[in-house]
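User: My instructor asked us to take a sequence, write out its structure as C-alpha cells, and then describe one feature of it. I'm not sure where to start. Here is the sequence I was given:
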Amino acid sequence: MLTAWRAGTSRRFVSLSLPSPKIDFSRSMEYDCQKTATHITMKELFEFGSKPSSTTLLLASQFLYDELSIRLAQREKQLRDLPHGLAEMSSIIRVRTLYESSYREIKNIPKPRSMAQELQFTELIGDIKDRHRNVQMQVAEGLQELCTQREAARTIDFSKLLDAFYSSRIGIRLLIGQHVALHKPREGFVGVIKTDCRMMFCATMAVDAASELCTHYYGHAPKVVYEGNLDMTFTYIPAHVYYVLFELLKNSFRAVCERHRSGTLPPVKVVFAEGKRDVCVKISDVGGGISREGMAQMWNYTYSTAKISQKLNMTPMAGFGHGLPFSRLYARYFGGNLEVMTMEGYGTDVYVYLNKIGDVIDESPIN
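Assistant: Let's start with the prediction itself. The C-alpha cells for your sequence are:
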C-alpha cells in the first residue's frame, strides 16, 4: 500500500463489517466530516499502481471507500455553508444534492472484501465520476445566479472557499480515475499517470483544440511558435497538463483576436524549459495585456471579461471566470505553480511550473 496510506489509514483496513441496513445518513455524513482526508504524492500513486494485483486493487478499494466518503461529506458541508447567499442558489443546491447522493450510494454498499465487491465498487465510483463531470460549470452558474440577483456580489472574493472546494474535487476525480484506470492497463501508463509525458505532445493537442474553438468564434486563430526543449518528458498526468495549456491558450487566442481585429494575427509563443525539480512552459501573446485592475481580480471566480452570450455555450471561448484560477489549482496540486506577467497595451506571459519529482503531497484541504 502507499506509504502515506499505510501511515494514515491502517486502522481503516481492520474493520470491514457490512454497513447497517438502516443508516442515519445525516449523522454518518457529520461523523465523516470530522475525519481527516489523506494526502498523497504522485510518486506514491505511481509506485503503488505500478504492479496492480487483486490484493492491491482490493486494498485500494477499501481505502477509497473510506476516503471518498470523507471527501464527499466534507464537500457537501462546504457547499451548504457557502456565505453571502451562494448556498441558496439553485445550481449550488443541485451540486450539493449530487454530492449527498454520491455519498449515500457508497454507504449503501459494503466495503469491498472480495474481488466481486471490488468490481462493483469500482463501477459505482466510475459512474459517480461521470455524473460529477459538470460540477465546475454548475458552480459557475450558481455564481452567475448570485451576481444576477445581487450586483454587489461581483465584488465578493470567493477564491479561498472555492479554491478549497475545487482542490478537493481535483483530488476526488484523480483518486477515482487512477483506480478505474488500473483495471484497464495502457502501455506507458500507470493508471492515469504517464511514465514519459511529453509536454510538446500535450501542447500540440491543446493548440489544436483551442485553434478549432477560436476559429469557430472569430473565423481564424493565431499561429503558434514552439521554442525551447521540445523533447523533454517527465512522469505526470497528461490530462492535467492538457487542461492547463488549453485554458491558457484559449485566453491568449481570444486576446490576440480581439486586439488585432484587422490584419495578420501575431503568433502566440509556447516555450519549454526543464530545471532540476520542475518543468516549465511559458505562453506569450501580444494580445494587449491586462490592466492593473484586472490583475487584482483575475483569481476571483466572479471576474470575467467575456460577453454574456458566450456564457451560454457548453464549451465557451471564455466566460465564467473559472479557467485561470482553476488552471492554477491544477498546476499547484502536486507542487507546481502558475504565474502571470503582463504589460497593459502590449501582451501577457503566463508561466506554468510542474513538479517533475512527484514528492509533493496533494493540495486537497485536510478537512
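For the description part of your assignment, you could build on this observation: Residues 257 and 265 are 7 Å apart (CA to CA). Try explaining in your own words what that tells you about the chain.
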